[in-house]
């Protein structure tokens, strides 16, 4: 996977996104710390394919830094806004489809931030089945969601990542397949 040099300390990539979508998106968009964590993982583990499940800041980050990225979303309106933003700022056209369109594919890394909590729970196992190596679960700071993820992943190595905690208290977990 062709990779740009990333800095674990540089979170400025998000500034342009928040200028476009507003400061209120900071508590909803994927945490820049989580994205940097995944970028470092992509580099260190030589990841060759990424599924960005849930469009937005993550789409901008992954498509600006890596090749072989597929993006899915359950919300057509949000997907179209993300496509327009990526095209305008990266001069790159991306397709954003839904989970059904990738169910038969396998990805080295799945970044899972798909829809609201009900949607995430409903689609968790189908999304997990698209993963070949690493499955990053965003927002496991939510107690019932963390318990759900933990209960569904007992046969896998799951690591909760408080080091990805952001100013809103959000953090993720990494499941090794």
TrEMBL record:
**Full protein name:** Uncharacterized protein
